[in-house]
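Recall from the previous chapter that SMILES is a line notation for molecules. Here it describes calcium ion.
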Amino acid sequence: MKYAVFVLLAVTAVLSTAVARLDDTPMTPPPIPGFDYSGDMNMSYVLTVEDVQLTFMAALGLWFPYPAGDCNGDGSINAADAGSIFQALMDIVSCYAPIPTPAIPLTPTPTPATGPERVWLSGNTHIGCPGDTVMISVSMENPQTDIDCFGLEFHYDSQTMFYTGFEPGDLDPGWIMIDCIELDPGRVRACGFCIGTPIPSGSSGELLDLTFQSICTDCYWLELYPYAFDWLVDDIQSFYPESGTMDVQCVRPVHNGDTNLDHQLSCGDAQLVFLHVLGLVELNFQQFTTGDCNLDYALTAEDAQLIFQSVMGQAACADPI
Ligand SMILES: [Ca+2]
Ligand SMILES: [Ca+2]
Ligand SMILES: [Ca+2]
Ligand SMILES: [Ca+2]
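With both inputs in hand, we obtain:
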């Protein structure tokens, strides 16, 4: 009995110490002033995907409910705020309040040097014929870092193609939110986050599969167009962004003789081929393939002659017009 009383007293003492500690320690560290309703949940003076992730976690009770995360300004933090911050990242909406201006201007993050952790463009990097679908993948290698939150931008020449859509790649860890949007012509921004199950360090594979449509009507065969990655943020901010070039390869050539692309066959087409053979006129890849009337993958005086004869009804190009 004496022993039981002692245990009870000891338990009471431990409990009251714990309660006293709880009273001394605030549940939420005080927020930095000025960030309320701005969406900048980690109070870093910039909006990145981590702000969405932390707000989502706050809505689930897994993170401090700082008023910074109350993007829609309705006095509470829930998944809708996370959605609004995500849309703010995509330039679709703005949060209730702007992010405060830092007292000391932020220093721009230098582009990371080459390293084992990197992001690059994989797969087919040919732009193709006008109207063709161009499918490319954003690949990633993360030997050292778990990834549960990322943002990046893909920059390309908007004269060659336009963005049509995306799918998560084979590295998909079960994204809670993921999206890609063309912010400006030639600038696609991608954002995604998950909670609890990151892409584990030591992975290598495709982060995103992007789809474009070629509009490269004035492109020349094998002409090179540069692309670059930019705005690598959150878990991939120290990753090396590999830039490169895409080339033009039209895999659906039509050898119908219509070298000037006016949808009819005339002496002008034969003349254009002849001028090219003489080195007086440069032709783009589409003109080159249509001019190759005899389908020998070369543009010669023979093509000019054959086109001329086709106009006169005495011959025919490999493809009908
Ligand atoms: Ca932030
Ligand atoms: Ca809210
Ligand atoms: Ca023509
Ligand atoms: Ca030819």
